[in-house]
Design a protein that fits this description.
By secondary structure, this protein is an alpha/beta fold. The strands form three sheets. It has a six-stranded mixed sheet with strand order 6-9-10-3-11-12, sandwiched between helices. The chain is built from 23 helices and twelve strands. It folds into two domains: 324 residues, ABC transporter transmembrane region fold (Up-down Bundle); 227 residues, Rossmann fold. Bound molecules: adenosine-5'-diphosphate and magnesium ion (MG). The site of adenosine-5'-diphosphate has 12 residues, from α14.
Length: 647
């Protein structure tokens, strides 16, 4: 059988020039170290099969040239038994071979996948802000399977080399003239392989690319947000036309591919038949003039059919190996991606129920250069990860939160509030200064205990596509139904859930029941309540909450934050009037600090913001989005901040 050439997004011309990378080969071999013994057994069975494969024609030859002319019943019976034994042995070998082949192949796929998944999961959040999910998925699927192609290639080469060696040796022993004649079509086969074989590979590569773009289009359109965009902009017909165009390309290349494949394999088979005919011609003449026995001719005719496929296979083995190694390399590339935010050797665990003190000391921060964490080939095509860090986002921020206290962060959009909170849970590390929880630098504690200590309710909380109960139990897998209900009652979301037909079994998430922004946040608060962290961070929802929703969130917060240290980013200043300390953040600095009354008395930026929001008859909230307004106010505040409190 001629193997269908399966090539990934690799240019065969580039591959032809590429050298086999010994480093990758060595590393792949090292990666497969658990399989070395099994690979040995696997190759052993392949060699035995190749040797056994030359026996049947020889049995035929014995039968025709010796047993029948000698009219020996005993020889016939012996040959019969031999044929059966060889057939059974080959079947047995095939089974053993398949077993080891799949154990090694699937095992490698498993090992690579598990290693990739583990590594990717522990990458810093910055990595996910740049990486294309599709590229990552293809790395987990296609490349992992592609890498396993090294084993397949190794097996094919071994099998081909031995089968070819054995077949040629036996053929030469039977008749060197006939053997040479059968090899005369070899150049034609090689030319065919070069020309058509390559075109075939190029076509199938092209088709894979087309299929990929078609899939991308579908995944972008066939989700709630995409479908909504298409509908609201009245584009369904344009979208259908565009899709038909892409699908049409797939159809056209499909037809070319089918015809090229047929021509290629047909021509190869034709060449094979020519070779066989040449054997008949030369062989029959030799039988007539007595230089060859009839049985030998029959055997030669059988062997010649086994000659050509290993030859074409071997011709493409180098490319196959290179392709597989490139996949290995692409997997290693991800496995080698640095993980800057790892746990320190000998990290200490924060106490399970800590006091919840937060010390932020002279923290300076800028986002690290993308080149320090990005994997170039996973980024949007053509984009090169920058080598420069961002501008300073935080410039010397200091504050202390006593156990049980509530710290509020207010300030214009883009001031650095969210960034500041992300340093507490170590989504990023500070550039200078330190963040300490209960007197431990967050960089010195175990990641698990840090995650346990801090509960975060982000601005737009994510829910998995699963039931409400399952989403809640993500915080505490052992939680009972009563625990869930208690948490949801405290978060003021229980009544909403109870009113749904399926209650806590209602599936939420992108493709599930669509909770409103405020409901989602209250559910997220319930989730954090189940986790029972010492510190809660809340990035208030900016979606325009109605006053009822707002009141509910206030109540939910009062429960959630009771007895816990909290950092609340507030867009509605009503949320934080009870805060122990309000920090007014602007352009990465704390420009004012104090309690609500203190800040009102100081009559600075905060007072300005507060009056605009509540007394000026303007009920617009201090939300991202109403930025122009807020920034204008902030502009004035900056001047005052400099004259006054500035930190
Ligand atoms: N990954 C990033 N790389 C570079 N700059 C970023 C990144 N994420 C956010 N920023 C910038 O950091 C600044 C602070 O953002 P953020 O902390 O979200 O502000 P806030 O929460 O106060 O509205 C903004 O100017 C934003 O553009
Ligand atoms: Mg923010």
């Amino acid at each position: 059988m001629y193997r269908m050439r399966y090539s990934q997004s690799l240019d065969p011309e580039a591959l032809k020039k590429a050298a086999i990378d010994r480093g990758t080969l060595k590393r792949a071999w090292q990666f497969a170290r658990h399989y070395h013994l099994r690979i040995g057994i696997y190759l052993g069975t392949i060699i035995l099969s190749a040797v056994a494969g030359v026996v049947p024609p020889l049995i035929f030859k014995q039968l025709i040239d010796h047993a029948i002319p000698a009219r020996s019943q005993r020889s016939v019976t012996l040959l019969f038994v031999a044929a059966i034994v060889v057939a059974v042995a080959m079947t047995g070998l095939g089974l053993i071979n398949r077993y080891f082949g799949s154990v090694i192949g699937e095992g490698l796929i498993f090992d690579l996948r598990a290693a990739l998944y583990d590594h990717v999961q522990k990458m810093p959040i910055a990595f996910f802000t740049r990486t294309q999910t599709g590229a990552l998925l293809s790395r987990m699927n296609n490349d992992v399977i592609g890498a396993q192609g090294t084993v397949t290639t190794l097996a094919t080469v071994t099998s081909d080399v031995f089968a070819l060696g054995m077949t040629l040796t036996v053929m030469l022993l039977l008749s060197w003239k006939v053997t040479l004649a059968s090899l005369m079509i070899l150049p034609a086969i090689i030319v065919l392989d070069r020309k058509l074989g390559r075109r075939l590979a190029a076509l199938s590569r092209h088709r894979m690319g087309l299929n990929a773009t078609m899939t991308t289009t579908m995944t972008e359109r066939f989700n709630v947000s995409g479908a909504l965009l298409v509908k609201l902009f009245g584009r369904p017909d344009a979208e259908s036309a565009e899709f038909a165009h892409r699908a049409g390309d797939v159809r056209d290349t499909g037809i070319s591919l089918a015809m090229t494949a047929r021509t290629y394999y047909g021509a190869l088979a034709l060449m094979g038949s020519f070779g066989t005919a040449a054997v008949y011609l030369l062989g029959a003449r030799s039988v007539i003039n007595g230089s060859l026995k009839l049985g030998a001719l029959v055997a030669l005719a059988a062997y010649v059919t086994k000659l050509y496929s290993p030859l074409t296979d071997l011709a493409s083995a180098r490319t196959d190996l290179l392709t597989a190694l490139v996949s290995f390399e692409r997997v290693f590339e991800v496995l080698d991606a640095p993980r800057p935010l790892t746990e320190k050797e000998g990290a200490t665990a924060l106490a399970p129920v800590g006091a919840g003190t937060i010390d932020v000391e002279d923290v300076w921060f800028r986002f690290p250069a993308p080149s320090t964490y990005a994997v170039a080939s996973l980024e949007t095509e053509g984009s090169v990860p920058g080598t420069e860090p961002s501008d300073w986002i935080l410039r010397g921020v200091s504050f202390r939160a006593e156990p049980g206290h509530m710290i509020a962060l207010v300030g214009p959009s883009g001031a650095g509030k969210t960034t500041l909170t992300s340093l507490l849970s170590r989504l990023y590390d500070v550039t200078a200064g330190s963040v300490r929880l209960d007197n431990h630098d967050v960089r010195d504690v175990t990641l698990q205990s840090l995650a346990d200590a801090i509960g975060v309710v982000p601005q737009d909380p994510h829910l998995f596509h699963d039931s409400i109960a399952a989403n809640l139990r993500y915080a505490r897998p052992g939680a009972t139904d009563d625990d869930l209900i208690a948490a949801c009652q405290a978060a003021r979301i229980h009544d909403v859930i109870a009113s749904l037909p399926e209650g806590y079994d209602t599936v939420v998430g992108e493709r599930g029941y669509r909770l409103s922004g405020g409901e989602k946040q209250r559910l997220a608060i319930a989730r954090v309540l189940l986790k029972r962290p010492a510190i809660v961070i809340l990035d208030e929802a900016t979606s325009h909450l109605d006053s009822e929703n707002e009141a509910l969130i206030q109540q939910a917060l009062a429960t959630a934050l009771a007895g816990r240290t909290s950092v609340v980013i507030a867009h509605r200043l009503s949320t934080i009037q009870a805060a122990d300390q309000i920090l007014v953040v602007e352009a990465g600095k704390i420009v004012e600090r104090g309690t609500h009354t203190e800040l009102l008395d100081a009559d600075g930026l905060y007072a300005e913001l507060y009056n605009t929001q509540y007394n000026g008859g303007d009920d617009s909230e201090l939300a991202e989005g109403s930025g122009a307004h807020v920034d204008a106010v902030a502009g004035q505040g900056e001047a005052e901040g400099r004259a006054g409190i500035g930190s």
